[in-house]
UniProtKB/TrEMBL annotation:
This is Metallophosphoesterase. PANTHER family: METALLOPHOSPHOESTERASE, CALCINEURIN SUPERFAMILY, SERINE_THREONINE-PROTEIN PHOSPHATASE CPPED1. It comes from Steroidobacter flavus. It holds the Pfam family Metallophos. Gene3D superfamilies: 3.60.21.10. Residues 334-357 are annotated as: Disordered.
């Protein structure tokens, strides 16, 4: 099927019943030449459900997922499906995954799942897979080819040989700025699968990829990084329109690399600061990415809010409605040849990053 995109704006907040609230939720519309072909999906990510003991869980974090699920069910029009972007659990335990799965079961409609490192490194995804199925796969929906990747794998030596217990392996991978951690990757086996999967897809078919880590190299110290990102990007390069959605970073990021538009999902749990606010940071975000105005990990709801993603041209346009912040849009500018922040592109207009951590 030959799909053509129009360039009309997706955002019509009057049609979304809860658009005025600050919610940890992404709403995505793919807009086609025929409005009747348009469809939406919702994206929720990074809930980090953490068990205290028994049936007690860290309240702030499961409350974020409960709210996101409830508001997703109120969306009008109803999304065709929901993506959960990974890190459902914090330490990968059965109680955490069961509790998260129970909360997600309240969603009305089809849910697709992405593997996060917090879901994986306790038992290498065994229990997660029993609950949710394959760790990587693809599906078709209304003329769009969707791909879900497990991007949080790492070297066999680190995974199987280094740690005396599975609990320590999970704890090491869960730590931020931990020199004992290991960079993520998609891996040879999965890249070979992806090559075969994409070989069946026409080059003018819109392709949307979901991963947990960014499929680009942002900041290695915090594992905002995928070691084989360039190899994956090369497999996607022949296609006219590609969009990659990812979680993991708990902050707004947007970037364009060739034909590939990258955009992150905010977390339902807590925000992370930007790497340049960290005194020991050796690498900053991609230079074309404009950071959001705030990311304060000491304020639990900072960096949570609506994200409206319009993929009408194959280059994602992201409109964010953040808690206690102005609505902002980051979109590809054809004249500039890279993403531009409609309000805060000028450095003089940006709020400086937090520096107290």
């Amino acid at each position: 099927m030959d799909i053509k995109y129009d360039r009309r704006s997706f955002i019509k907040t009057s049609t979304v019943g809860v658009a005025g609230a600050a919610l940890p939720l992404t709403m995505v519309e793919l807009a086609f030449a025929k409005p009747s072909d348009n469809f939406t999906f919702a994206y929720i990510s990074d809930s980090h459900i953490q068990q205290i003991k028994g049936n007690q869980f860290v309240r702030n974090w499961d409350r974020g997922l409960i709210r996101a699920v409830a508001e997703t069910n109120l969306l009008t029009p109803k999304p065709d499906f929901v993506i959960f972007g990974g890190d459902l659990a914090q330490m990968g335990s059965k109680p955490e995954l069961d509790h998260g799965a129970e909360l997600l079961s309240k969603l009305n409609g089809k849910v697709y799942h992405v593997m996060g490192e917090h879901d994986y490194y306790l038992d290498l995804g065994e229990y997660w897979s029993k609950l949710f199925g394959k760790q990587y796969y693809s599906f078709e929906h209304k003329g769009v080819h969707f791909v879900v990747l497990n991007s949080i794998l790492t070297h066999d030596e680190w995974t199987f040989n280094r740690w005396p217990t599975a609990q320590q392996r999970m704890a090491e991978m869960a730590g931020l700025d931990n020199p004992n951690g290991s960079p993520f990757m998609v891996g040879v086996k999965q890249r070979e699968w992806l090559k075969k999967d994409l070989a069946k897809v026409k080059k003018d078919t819109p392709v949307v990829v979901f991963s947990h880590s960014p499929l680009q190299k942002i900041y290695k110290g915090w594992n905002f990084w995928t070691d084989d990102a360039e190899e994956v990007q090369a497999l996607l390069a022949p296609f006219d329109k590609v969009t990659v959605f990812y979680g993991h970073v708990h902050q707004i990021q947007y970037n364009q690399i060739g034909n590939i538009a990258f955009t992150s999902a905010m977390a339902t749990a807590w925000p992370w600061p930007y790497p340049q606010s960290y005194a020991q940071a050796q690498q900053l975000l991609p230079k074309l990415t404009v950071q959001m105005n705030r990311a304060d990990p000491f304020f639990e709801r900072d960096a949570t809010g609506w994200q409206f993603i319009d993929v009408n041209s194959g280059r994602a346009s992201a409109t964010f409605n953040l808690y206690n912040n102005k609505v902002r849009t980051v979109a590809f500018d054809p004249q500039a040849g890279h993403p531009m922040d409609k309000t805060y592109q000028d450095p003089d207009k940006r709020i400086q990053p937090q520096t107290h951590y």
